[in-house]
């Protein structure tokens, strides 16, 4: 049956209930028939009793009437009168009978007419006429005979009615008894039948669903889908969908393990390898079967083994994940730099690891170190010497220069200054990235900071006739003076570079509860909204042409951000294209 479970449950209750209601209706109907039969029998008995009583009273009255007419005394006449009253009561009782057939009612009318004739001819006790005894007796005899004939006919009919109703009662009682027996047997059979259908429709299919649940856990193929469109079939369909999803996920995992460029492996809590992906063949030169069952020291270089073991063994005690860089020992004895990401699953009681080859990154880092070392030793010193030489030329210490020589010297000094700033920015960015930049905070005067910053940018501002206005209370600040000068000079240099000539730049300091806020505000070209989130990234500039037209390395704002955050503060920018920019720094007081 393609019915939902609630409908089946309601049917299991409703079908027997409908049968029982119908059965009760039938029993009530036939019980009514039986009651009606009893009523007819009782009516027939009542009519017969009234007729019999009337006949008895009529005979007694007639007898006393004859005796009185034949010469009886007053006692007989008085007794006859008493029986005459009984005849009146009989007549009244006959007239009050209900539920009679037309034939019985005509018989009652005939009997009452006969009674009227008897009562009419009954002798008067005050004037008894005994001269016509024969006529009186004859008329009384005729009236009594008519009454007896009609009464016997009525009694016969009432007797037949009683026999018929008694037979009908026996039949109805037998039918009701058989119906009760049949109803009980049929109800039991119906319950067994419905239970069998429910068992076949629900229980057996539920057993299939339970079996599929076990097979799903064990990873075995599921049994065929159960039929129907109820909740059981829906549940089985969900199990099949889950099995398909799990199978697809398993296939994806296998494909991931097979095709991953990283080595994926799992270990138990004793750091014994249980499963390893096929990437180990390409990266580590091991076959997967060679590593299954091996311990961690098989693949980790001795110098990195203790640190790796400590991190991995502490996973189940502290953090559920960890990431570290290790040197992997390949099968041929060579080493490979790898980033090891590990995750401990308490449910599986295993450590799942992903080893990513970072040899190329490490090589780039080594090249970067070599480059920075070269910049620091091989470029910085010659640039400093050249700057000192050009300063001496421009100051006339080494002799006087003509106008062309002075202009060339100034241009060269400016280019060397820019190159020197780039070198310093590169070295500072590297120190900040490695966390080697030292911040030496102390209590300093805000006025001193402002004076030194303005002195550093005065020449650049004067060259473009830019006025720097300031609201700057002389309070104490808790910061590294040199680093904060570096930050503010960088921000002011940027403001000067991107502001029009004869414009104004604001440098403001505001004291706040538990903090101070420094703002550098210009009226230059502004920064597009989509660039504001990335303006503090390394080597990031608003326009590609800024590096050549405005100068700069794209490291200045990144260094500013790192230095401010090293102070425990924050830096942000608000800007609208064409309306200028406002860089705000917030530092702890």
Describe it for me?
The protein is of the alpha+beta class and 589 residues long. Strand 4 and strand 5 form a beta hairpin. It has helices at 5-69, 74-95, 102-120, 133-218, 231-259, 279-283, 288-291, 302-313, 359-395, 403-434, 446-463, 481-497, 529-532, 546-549, 556-566; strands at 263-267, 273-276, 321-329, 335-345, 350-357, 442-445, 467-471, 476-479, 504-512, 515-521, 570-576, 580-588. The chain has 15 helices and 12 strands. The strands form 3 sheets. It has a 5-stranded antiparallel beta sheet, with helices on both faces. It has a 5-stranded mixed beta sheet with strand order 7-9-10-12-11. A two-stranded antiparallel ribbon has the order 6-8.
| Sheet having the most strands | 5 strands, antiparallel
β content, as a range?
Answer: 5-15%
What is Rg?
63 Å
Distance between the termini: 80 Å
